[in-house]
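in:
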């Protein structure tokens, strides 16, 4: 009976050793798995903010959020009445300044003609020196009047040009193709200069911004191709091309937290343009995985 107990105990010890050995083998195998070198990037698109150039009341916003528009389409207009009044005033001032300038120029022409005649008489001593001196003084004064009148005319031209520019800026048009993603104001609202009224997004101009740490960024070059994946399209691998590797550090994404006096890891922003061949709609803010182990050669 004692021998039987000893035999069972030996079997149990052997079983424990076998289980322990298997666990160790699996742990060693797990340790040999190499994780891919992945970084996360963010999708960005070209956004254009259409701002009011001059203050005024909005009179029309013929676009709506989600609407596809083309370059040159009207986006909004503001009240022109105050500017039209200023245009009338500036036009009147310009015309008056022009008349004064032309009168001064005519006076100079007349005096120059008279001076020429008296100069001929002076040369044959038929006119006194005092008379020539007076004519010279009058002619110099008349030329100064022309200069002053010309300056006033040019200033009036500048005022009218500014008014006309402001008048043209009461209507704002789309500078590019895109989608209206935000309309920030309403018709009848009084807006100030610089207020954003419409935001356009060009989904055709997309790229990825990824922060790559200093240990990896030196391996990347402009023109290299990289495979990209997104949780929005888990079964699809799409393509990008590195178009810029920033030389300026972005921020320390990995902080030192151990007792070995390690330093923070600085990251650099890498811009990756999406290929036009990939018919995939990635929206701004979506996260994309970039596999740095599969970076291709520069094109």
């Amino acid at each position: 009976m004692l021998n039987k107990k000893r035999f069972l105990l030996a079997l149990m010890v052997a079983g424990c050793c076998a289980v322990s050995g298997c666990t160790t083998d699996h742990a060693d195998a797990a340790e040999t798995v190499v994780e891919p070198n992945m970084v996360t990037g963010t999708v960005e698109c070209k956004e254009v903010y259409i701002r009011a150039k001059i203050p005024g009341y909005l009179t029309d916003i013929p676009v709506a959020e989600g609407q596809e528009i083309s370059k040159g389409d009207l986006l909004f207009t503001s009240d022109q009445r105050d500017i039209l009044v200023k245009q009338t005033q500036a036009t009147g001032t310009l015309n008056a300044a022009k008349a004064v300038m032309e009168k001064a120029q005519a006076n100079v022409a007349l005096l120059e003609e008279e001076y020429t005649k008296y100069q001929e008489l002076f040369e044959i001593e038929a006119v006194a020196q005092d008379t020539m001196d007076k004519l010279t003084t009058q002619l110099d004064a008349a030329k100064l009047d022309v200069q002053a009148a010309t300056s006033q005319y040019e200033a009036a031209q500048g005022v009218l040009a500014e008014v006309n520019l402001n008048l043209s800026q009461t209507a704002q048009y789309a500078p590019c193709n895109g989608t209206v993603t935000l309309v920030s104001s309403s018709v009848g609202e009084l807006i100030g200069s610089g207020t954003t009224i419409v935001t356009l997004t060009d989904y055709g101009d997309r790229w990825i911004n990824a922060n790559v740490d200093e240990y990896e960024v030196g391996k990347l070059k402009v023109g290299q191709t990289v495979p990209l994946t997104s949780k929005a399209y888990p079964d699809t691998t799409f393509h990008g091309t590195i178009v810029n590797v920033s030389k300026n550090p972005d921020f320390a994404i990995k902080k030192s937290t151990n007792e070995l006096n390690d330093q923070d890891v600085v990251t650099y922003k890498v811009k990756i343009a999406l290929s036009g061949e990939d018919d995939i709609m990635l929206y701004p803010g979506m996260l994309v995985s970039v596999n740095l182990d599969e970076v291709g050669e520069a094109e």
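note: The radius of gyration is 40 Å.
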